[in-house]
């Protein structure tokens, strides 16, 4: 083992590190970029979500961190030690897969302790650490069971216990909740976050579900076609998506063609169809002329207020705590509105939206 390998592995085993740094990490398949110049610094204790649709490069990024895929370009550093030349087993990271990847013929305790056994840890120490890991994931009474005797949520807890028992500096999770039903997914979100805090390590979590990313992460990395589109807190990405395609992905279903009438820094006035004028916020540099405005359905209020305009309710769907209304506006666009009350199909209503919730983007983004 080289000196670099020795230091990196020791840091991993002791969970003593300050940051993991990716510098210009790229990965090509057949000449096409699946991951293009990803640069990201993950601090100790952070929970990072890689978010985006299928094919955006998030799992490729995770596999590059794990050492399961070699880099086409770039470097990965654990503090001051470069680790991208190291094989997966020398990086000391924990991995939780989408399909659990448990050995069906081994008991829960032997599944959890498998990595320790491969590392040559003594039997008594394996027993102690396996018991502690099972306690952390709240599976104390299931040590002798086989995976097939457990529910899906319990199997996922075994997979998490196997990842944390090696005391890694970083846990990598590749869509670990996608095979669970909705109720279990919500329960496991809280469990994963609790375990993350208890372990004090860093977590990188791949998901296509924006609700998961918002609920769990300290920072969200939004990706598209192998390229990072935005990095920010859940609040920043949710409230201030940097690009129109991020806004669409985060639930901004109302996208209106407008023209920029006035621009003063980030504050803009735009003209919509039918002469409706709206105040808004410029999310990128804007010139006079065509643009697009994005508005979340839950930001539109029934009643008079800022940016008011008229409309007629065309349909109403009850969603439990709120209604999803489709409203035909006076300028003949169809808007989605989430409201705690049902205005009634055919009703003529006034709508308003705060100016700081009308996000304006360049028109070329819509064409793209």
Automatic annotation (TrEMBL):
InterPro entries: AAA+_ATPase, ABC_SmlMolc_Importer, ABC_transporter-like_ATP-bd, ABC_transporter-like_CS, Mo/tungstate-bd_C_term_dom, NA-bd_OB-fold, P-loop_NTPase, Transp-assoc_OB_typ2. It comes from the Bacteria. Keywords: ATP-binding, Cell membrane, Membrane, Nucleotide-binding, Transport. Pfam families: ABC_tran, TOBE_2. GO terms for molecular function: ATP binding. Residues 20-250 form the ABC transporter domain. This is ABC transporter ATP-binding protein. It comes from Polaromonas jejuensis.
């Amino acid at each position: 083992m080289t000196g670099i390998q020795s230091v990196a592995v020791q840091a991993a085993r002791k969970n003593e590190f300050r940051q993991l740094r990716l510098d210009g990490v790229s990965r090509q398949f057949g000449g096409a970029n699946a991951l293009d110049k990803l640069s990201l610094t993950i601090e100790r204790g952070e929970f990072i979500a890689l978010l985006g649709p299928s094919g955006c490069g998030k799992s490729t990024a995770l596999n590059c961190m794990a050492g399961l895929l070699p880099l086409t370009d770039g470097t990965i550093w654990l503090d001051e030690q470069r680790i991208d030349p190291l094989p997966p087993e020398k990086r000391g990271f924990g991995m939780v897969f989408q399909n659990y990847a448990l050995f069906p013929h081994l008991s829960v305790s032997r599944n959890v302790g498998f990595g320790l056994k491969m590392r040559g840890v003594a039997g008594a120490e394996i027993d102690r650490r396996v018991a502690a890991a099972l306690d952390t994931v709240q599976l104390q009474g299931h040590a002798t069971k086989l995976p097939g005797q457990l529910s899906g949520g319990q199997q996922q807890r075994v997979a998490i216990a196997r990842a944390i028992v090696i005391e890694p500096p970083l846990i990598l999770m590749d869509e670990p909740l996608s095979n669970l039903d909705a109720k279990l997914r919500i329960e496991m979100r809280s469990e994963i976050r609790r375990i993350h805090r208890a372990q004090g390590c860093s977590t990188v979590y791949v998901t296509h579900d924006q609700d998961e990313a918002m609920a769990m992460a300290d920072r969200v990395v939004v990706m598209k076609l192998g390229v990072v589109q935005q990095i920010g807190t859940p609040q920043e990405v949710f409230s201030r998506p940097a690009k129109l395609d991020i806004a669409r992905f985060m639930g901004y279903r109302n996208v209106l063609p407008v023209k920029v009438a006035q621009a003063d820094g980030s504050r803009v006035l735009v003209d919509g169809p039918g002469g409706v004028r709206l105040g808004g916020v410029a999310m990128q540099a804007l010139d006079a002329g065509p643009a697009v405005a994005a508005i979340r359905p839950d930001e539109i209020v029934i009643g008079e207020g800022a940016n008011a305009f008229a409309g007629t309710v065309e349909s109403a769907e009850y969603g439990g705590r709120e209604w999803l209304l489709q409203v035909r506006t006076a300028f003949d666009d169809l808007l989605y509105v989430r409201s705690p009350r049902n205005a009634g199909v055919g009703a003529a209503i006034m709508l308003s939206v705060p100016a700081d919730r009308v996000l304006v983007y360049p028109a070329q983004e819509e064409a793209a």
